[in-house]
Amino acid sequence: MCSVVEMSIAGLSEWLASPQGEYVAAWEQARHDQLVADIFGFNALQIGMLECDLLRANRMPLRFACGREGGEVRSDWYRLPFAATSIDLVVLPHALEFAEHPHQILREIERVLVPEGQVIITGFNPFSLWGIRRFLTRGPAPFPWRGRYLSVMRLKDWLALLGFEMQLGSFGCYAPALKRPLRGRGWRWVEQAGERWWPIAGAIYVVQAVKRVHGMRLIQPAWRDRKARAKALAPVVQRSPEPLSVQPHPAPGGARARRAAGDR
């Protein structure tokens, strides 16, 4: 039985094959390649949008893709088949804005992530030219215009309630939502102008957050712990000042007495 999330993203594959979809997918793939390359651990999970391998630049030994069709894991995204605190990295592209219960997806991700685990979320920006088009669209609409776009600030609040700390965020895809996106010099000019003059108005955003666990004590190697305890218990020894060398003063008349004794 297909999940509510998967049913609501019908048309994603067809859209990704269109000029608009290729434009967005190229930017997201390049951005994920940069972000996941330096995230380490054992288990990484991509939820949805299996047409793009957003974990290809990651070096974890086990990388899973979760979807209704295809991928190593076929599951309802509201109930992931993973033990608590077992995943080091979760990549979540365009799932929240097309889910009936986006909070439940985030709670499930928080459950499976290890402490200090990371999540990377991609979404459509409501405060962009694409967001304006989605707002003006009425009635049944194809992907991606029927989603409930989430702003970065709202997403940040949701993550904070679950104990996540946002590390960074970036925007991209500044060209308008045309059937045939700008290419060549026109495309490069629009992207450069957007990054400089209206950086938060990109059609797509990607945010990276870390799961924080308050009161958690990081475990260090035993030899380092013993060394730290020994250093803390060591007595404080201050170096004594070197004694001053004092030259004795000759007694009054001492030289005269010695000469007199010699004369005798």
Detailed description of the structure:
The chain has helices at residues 4-8, 12-16, 19-36, 102-112, 129-136, 152-161, 184-197, 222-233, 254-263, and strands at 43-47, 62-66, 87-93, 113-124, 164-172, 204-211. The chain has one domain (4-211): Rossmann fold (3-Layer(aba) Sandwich). Helix 4 (102-112) links the parallel strand 3 (87-93) and strand 4. The protein has a 6-stranded mixed β-sheet with strand order 2-1-3-4-6-5, with helices on both faces. It is built from 9 helices and 6 strands, in the order H-H-H-E-E-E-H-E-H-H-E-H-E-H-H.
Secondary structure topology:
Blueprint (H helix, E strand, L loop, with lengths): L3 H5 L3 H5 L2 H18 L6 E5 L14 E5 L20 E7 L8 H11 E12 L4 H8 L15 H10 L2 E9 L11 H14 L6 E8 L10 H12 L20 H10 L1
Parallel strand pairs: 1-2, 1-3, 3-4
Antiparallel strand pairs: 4-6, 5-6
Topology as a string of helices (H) and strands (E): HHHEEEHEHHEHEHH
Low-confidence stretches: 1-8, 232-240
Summarize the biggest pleated sheet.
Answer: 6 strands, mixed
At the third CATH level, what is the topology name? Rossmann fold
Shape: globular
What Rg do the Cα atoms give?
33 Å
Strand content: 15-25%
CATH class: Alpha Beta
Intertermini distance: 130 Å
Give the name of the CATH architecture: 3-Layer(aba) Sandwich
Strand order across the largest sheet = 2-1-3-4-6-5
Judged by helices, strands and strand pairing, the structural class is alpha/beta
Residue-averaged pLDDT, rounded?
Answer: 82
**CATH H level: which superfamily?**
Vaccinia Virus protein VP39
- Structural domain count: 1
Number of strands: 6
Q: Approximately how much helix is present in the residues?
A: 25-40%
Enumerate how many helices there are, as a single number: 9
